[in-house]
Amino acid sequence: MTHDETVAATTVGEAPAPRPRARLIDVATAAGVSPKTVSRVINDEPGVLPQTRDRVRQTVQALGFVPDRSARELKRRAADTVGILIDAISDPFFAAFVSVVEELAVAEGLSVIFASTGYDAARERTQLDRLTGHRLAGLIVAPVEVEAETLAGLGARFPVVTVDRAREGIDAVVIDDVGAAVEATTALIARGHRRVAFMREDVSYPTVSDRLAGYRSALEAAGLPFDPSLVVTHERFGSGDAAEAALLLERDDAPTALLCATSLAAIGTVRAIRARGLRMPALVSFGDFTLAEVLEPGITYVDHDPRLLGAAAFRRLRERAERPDEGPVRIVVPTRLVPRGSGEVEPPTGTAADPSTGSGATAGVAVRSAGSEASADAAGVVAGDPSPDAAPLPVLSEPAAALAATALALVHPQPAGDADVSAAAPIGAP
User: Fold this and answer.
1) Are strands 359-360 and 336-338 parallel, antiparallel or unpaired?
2) Is-annotated flag, keyword Lipoprotein (predicted)?
């Protein structure tokens, strides 16, 4: 027997060496991708190109890789981060919103990561992929164009709540944009204003269009014609001041009142008015902003308190984690109109009186503002006699509260929410 034969005989009696179990890093190396990409493919997460996904799956099969289920469960239990996707942290509303969510999360031992969309759908997709690559305990998102189906898919992995804008079948925390705009516009009309302008923004969000619908509804309820030339658009990424507002206020038939659909539109409008030395019209901002109260006059605003929205969104996120099979809930956070002076500016002499009587058209109306009452008598609404050349203007026969109710009956796309929100502190408190 030769030496070679001896070796062969010895080998025949031995069991083959066991094949080492493939690890995730082995799959990543063989497929030429990162371990994170392999993990995303295995967990069927978004953010991987189709051809890369196919290559990884083929490698998994070829190497016989089996995911460690116990490790995955441990990873899931260890999720301790809340993701937030918002429009822009430079927006005063979302800056305050993120702050309150972070405060509540930290109190429960959670951390917060946030990203911004910049109002761009492509960037929204990228940022969603980045956020959902983390081990999230939940996601709060102000959607731009992301569809309900995508959010529902994410909701199978962790709780998802939308804020400010709703998606069908997804928990949402919103405000009554139509109702709040009706109240703000009606308050201006009740002050004696008959030419009320609307400053919207160049973003295709339903919040802005709903506020425009509320504005139009309030005009209709008061018997005032809708003038499309009084609806102008603020370019959010423009020069900073709202030149559109200046052009509007420099017209011979300039409006005497202006409702700004967002706080950023209001900031741009105030800058334009100050820069050009124009007379301040009666102005209401949809949302507060820094130093608005120290301007002269202070800026009257619709208070959709970001702290209440943030608290409600975080609370719903935690409730969803505890009750994952519960149906979607739409929470409507209350708003109120906060007077500071700008919204109470009266029309110039002769612009809002009733020519048929020679007196203010809104004598004796009651201006309601979410639980607070203020009256405006004839002398307080219009100062001076009407211009002899003024065109006849409608006389308001109903109190402002009744006008608001009528306006809401004309246009109101959504009913009240499924859950009440109680303020931990008064709305608008410091």
Assistant:
1) unpaired
2) no
Q: Angle at the Cα of 47 (from 116 to 43), degrees rounded to 5?
A: 120
261 alpha-carbon distance from chain centroid: 12
Domains and CATH numbers, the chain: 20-55+63-77 (1.10.260.40), 78-175+309-333 (3.40.50.2300), 177-305+335-410 (3.40.50.2300)
| Amino acid 146: pLDDT | 94
Q: Cα(first)–Cα(last) distance of the chain, in Å?
A: 97
DSSP summary character for residue 344: G
Q: CA 375, CA 381: separation in Å to the nearest integer?
A: 10
Phi, psi for 388 (deg, rounded to 5)? -65, -20
Token pair listed for 192: 């004696």
Instruction: Give the ranges where 66-157 is alpha helix by DSSP (H).
Output: 69-77, 92-107, 121-132, 148-155
CA distance 38 to 10: 41
Residue with tokens 């899931």: 76
Q: In angstroms, rounded to a whole number, what is the distance separating the alpha carbons of residues 161 and 147?
A: 13
Count CB-CB contacts under 10 A for residue 16: 6
The Cα 363–Cα 380 span in angstroms is 9
Integer CA distances (angstroms), 345 to 34, 280, 283, in order: 62, 8, 8
Across the chain, which has 430 residues, the per-10-residue mean pLDDT values are: 41 52 86 88 84 92 75 59 93 91 93 93 94 92 94 93 94 94 94 93 86 94 94 73 82 94 90 89 92 92 92 94 90 92 86 37 32 30 34 46 52 49 40
pTM: 0.67
- How many angstroms from the chain centroid is the CA of residue 144? 9
Q: Six-digit token pair at 292?
A: 């608005």
pLDDT of residue 18: 54
Tokens of 6: 């001896």
Q: Which of 81, 56, 169, 170 is nearest to 132 (CA)?
A: 81
CA dist., res. 325 & res. 63, Å (int): 37
Positions of E strands within 274-387: 282-286, 300-303, 330-333, 336-338, 353-354, 359-360, 365-369, 372-376
- Other residues' Cβ atoms within 10 Å of the Cβ of residue 391: 7
Q: Is beta strand 257-260 parallel, antiparallel or unpaired with respect to 359-360?
A: unpaired
Residue with tokens 């997709």: 125
Question: How far apart are alpha carbons 287 and 265 in whole angstroms?
Answer: 10
The whole-angstrom separation of Cα 146 and Cα 334 is 26
